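Ticket #4471: complex job returned nothing on first submit. Input attached below:
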Amino acid sequence: MKTTSLSKGTSRLEERRRAQQGRTAHGDERRQELIQTAYRLIAEKGVGGLRTRDVAALVGINTATLHYYFPTKEHLLQAVAQQLGYAFTTSPAPGTSAGDGANTPSEQMEAYFASLAYQLRTTPERFVVMNELFFAASRDERLAGALEVDTHWQAYLNSILEEGVKQGSFRSDLNVEQTALTIIAFCKGLPLLQSQPDSLDKIITSFKNWFFSMTATAIEKRTSSRHKRE
Amino acid sequence: MKTTSLSKGTSRLEERRRAQQGRTAHGDERRQELIQTAYRLIAEKGVGGLRTRDVAALVGINTATLHYYFPTKEHLLQAVAQQLGYAFTTSPAPGTSAGDGANTPSEQMEAYFASLAYQLRTTPERFVVMNELFFAASRDERLAGALEVDTHWQAYLNSILEEGVKQGSFRSDLNVEQTALTIIAFCKGLPLLQSQPDSLDKIITSFKNWFFSMTATAIEKRTSSRHKRE
Amino acid sequence: MKTTSLSKGTSRLEERRRAQQGRTAHGDERRQELIQTAYRLIAEKGVGGLRTRDVAALVGINTATLHYYFPTKEHLLQAVAQQLGYAFTTSPAPGTSAGDGANTPSEQMEAYFASLAYQLRTTPERFVVMNELFFAASRDERLAGALEVDTHWQAYLNSILEEGVKQGSFRSDLNVEQTALTIIAFCKGLPLLQSQPDSLDKIITSFKNWFFSMTATAIEKRTSSRHKRE
Amino acid sequence: MKTTSLSKGTSRLEERRRAQQGRTAHGDERRQELIQTAYRLIAEKGVGGLRTRDVAALVGINTATLHYYFPTKEHLLQAVAQQLGYAFTTSPAPGTSAGDGANTPSEQMEAYFASLAYQLRTTPERFVVMNELFFAASRDERLAGALEVDTHWQAYLNSILEEGVKQGSFRSDLNVEQTALTIIAFCKGLPLLQSQPDSLDKIITSFKNWFFSMTATAIEKRTSSRHKRE
DNA sequence: TATGAATGAGTGTTCATTCAT
DNA sequence: CATGAATGAACACTCATTCAT
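Support reply: We reran it on our side without changes. The output follows.
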C-alpha cells in the first residue's frame, strides 16, 4: 500500500513522528477495519455526514485511537478513496469472467454490463460512495489525487474496446475514448436515477443494446439478435 | 463571478395573489434572493458545505432574519430543490426551440441534445446542484418530496418520445420509459466525469448518434447522415 | 476602539459577516467583561493556561457566546494586549501626579518610580500579564502587533527625559533612548525576581538613586540629598 | 541550526557512580539528549508549547520511551530547570576570566558585564528559557524547587560585591543584596526588551557605568574614565 | 421585518500518559 | 530498554436555531 502523504502543512517534526510509525499486522487490520467502516458510513450518511466519532465507535475504539491511524479525517477519506479506485474494476459478477483475456472483447463487454447490473443490485452503495467521494474531491484537491476511479475505469474500458477494434469485432472507426466515456457517464448516472432498482436492469439492457448496435461491425445482425432477448 | 439564475420571473398576478396571503412583494424578493444565493453556494461548496450564515451574509441580512423566511435550513433547501425542478426543462439553447410543439419530435430531441450541451457549457452548476440535492434527498424524505426533477424530466422526454412514436418518426416498438431513463442516466452521469469540459460536447454527440440510430424508424438513413456531421 | 482585524485566512464571506456586526452598549460591556476576565486568568495561569471555557464560565456565558464576541482565542488575546498597552502608562500612584506636565521632569521621574513601586505592590499581575503576553507575542506576529507596550512606554519616558534635558535638570549629554530602555529593562525584570515583594521597594529606591545620580546635572548634590531619604 | 548546549560534561567518576545506581552510561546520554532537546524546544516554542512527542521525535525515540526516562513531563522540565541553574554563572565570555578569584572585584564585575553582553549575543535563548521556566515555576511549586537560578546568581554576585567592599574597591556603605538584586532585575528584563539586539550592548554599557559610578569608592574617577570609552 | 445576543450539541483534533509485549 | 497501540480528558471552534426587543 502506497503511503498516502500528500498533505502540505506538515512540519519536519511531524514528518519525523510519522516516519517512525512502524506497521504491524494488527495495525494494518485496524486500518482496514476503519476504512471499511468509514466506507459503510459514507454510503449511509454521505461524506458530509461522516463523523470520526461514529467510525471509531463502530470499530470499538476511542476517537483518539482513530487519529493514531489516520492523523486527519481527510487521510481516512483518502484511504477510502484509494481503495475504492482499485475495487471498481476488479469484482466482476460471479460466474462471468469479465477481465479475463480469454474471451473476445464483445464477450468481455457483455460480461461487463452483466457485472454492472449485478453490482448495482448487490453493492449499490459502491456507486453511492464513489459519487459522494467524487463530489468531495471536486472541492478538495488532496482527495481528488487519491480518487483515481475514472482513470482506472477508463483504462479498463479502453483496453477492451481497442482490442475489439483490433480483432475486428468492433467498428474500425470507433472512437474508443468517447465510447468509454459515454459508458462511464451512463454508469455514473445510473445510481442517481430516482427510479426503482428493479428497472435498472432493464435500462442497462437497453443501453447495452445501444452500445452493441453502434459498435458492432455488422450492425443489423447484433441488433436483431438482441431484440429477441429483450 | 457570473450570476447564475434559476428564477422564472414573478408576474404581477402572482404578486397580487401572494399579497393576499400576507406576503409582500418585497418579502418574495428576499425569498428569491435567499434561494438564489443558497443555490450558488450549493454549487460552490455542496449541500454539506452550505451554511445559513453564509447565505444570509451574502444577501446582506442577519442570520436570524433568514430564519424568518425559512424556519429551517431544510425549508430553504426544499425551496431550492423545488425551483430547480422547474428550471430543468425550461431553458433551451437560444436560437433553438426545444419544447415547442411546432417541430417534429426528432427535431425536438435534436434540440434537446443541443440544449444539453449548451447548458453543460454555460451552467454546469445546475447539474452539480441537482446531483447534490439528489444525494441530500436520498437521506431526507422531505427533501425528496420537493425534488421532483426526475418526474418533470421524465415526463418531458416521455411526451416527446411518445409523440415521435405516434408520428412514426421513432420505432413503434420503442420502450419509451426505458429510453427516457437511459437518457436521464446519461445526462446525470455526464457532469460527474473527471474529464475536460471540452470533451463533453463530443461525448454528447456520440450519445446522440446512438440514440437516433436506435430509435429512428429508418436506422441506416439517420446513422449515415449523422456520420457525415461528426 | 480600533477594530482589531489583522487575521489573514479570512475569506470574503467571513469579512462580510463580521462587518455587519453592530455594536451595542450591552455588547461592549460584555466585551470588556471578557477582556477583564481573560486578563485575570492570564495573571493566574499564564497565557498558555488560559482556557476560553474558563473565561466564558466566569463571565457566566456559553463558550459559543464568547466566540460571538471574539471569533478566536487570539482575538481575545489581542484585545487584552491592546488594552494593556494603554493601561501601562496611565495609572500613576494615587496622590502623585505622574504624567502631569505641571511638574518638573525630575519630579515626574520621582513620581514615576513611586508609581512603579505602588503598582508593583497593588497590581503586580499587570507586570506578569505583560510579560506573559510578551512571550506569547514573540511566537505570534499577530499578537506582537497588538502589544505595543514598549512603544508607549518608551515614548512616555523619552518625553520626560527630553524635557528634562531641555530644562537643564538632566545632563545635557544624556542618551535619552538608552536611559529609557535601561529603565524599562529594569522594570520588566523586577517582577521576575524570586524575592519577597517587600524587598522590591528597596530595590526600586536603590535603582532610582542610580538613575538620579547618573542623570542629574549636579551629581553630588542629588546623590547626597537622596541618601538622606534612604 | 546552531547547537545550543548547557551540558557540563560527565566525568568518568560520575559514570561509575551512576552505574552502581542502576544507571548506565548510555542511559545518561539519552537523558542528557532529552534534556538538551527539551531545552531547545522551550527556547523555540516556550514551556507551554513544549510537547513530549516533539522531544522524543527529535531524539529519535518513541514517546513511551521518553516516559521511561522521565515519568512525567514535569520531571523533564525539572531536569531542564536544574541544569539551567548551574549553567547560568559558569560560562563567562571567552578570553575573560570572570569567576576567577585572581582578579580584583572591579575587574570581575567588568568581566561579568562583558560576559553578559556576550551571552546575550551568542545564547539569547538561555535567558528566554530561564524566564519561561520562571513563569512556569511560579505556577508549579515542584518546578520552583528545581529552578534555583536566582539563588546561585545572587550568591555569585554577593560574593564578588562583598569581596569588593572588603578590599575597598566598592563603597563601604554599599547594600550588597540590593545591588545584586538590582543587577539581576536588569539582566532579567534585558531580553524582554522589544528592541534590536544590537542596542542591547549599548544599554549594558550604560547600565555598567551606572553601576560603577554608584559603587566605586571614588565616584568621580570611574565616571570620567568610563565616559571616554562610551 | 429585522437584529443582536445567546446557546446546546456537537466536531475534529491534541496530548500526556499507560501498558502489554 | 523500547515500542505500537490505546485512551481520557480536554480544547478551540462551529452551526442551526431561538428570543427579546
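Residues 85 and 149 of chain B are 4 Å apart (CA to CA). Closing as resolved unless it happens again.
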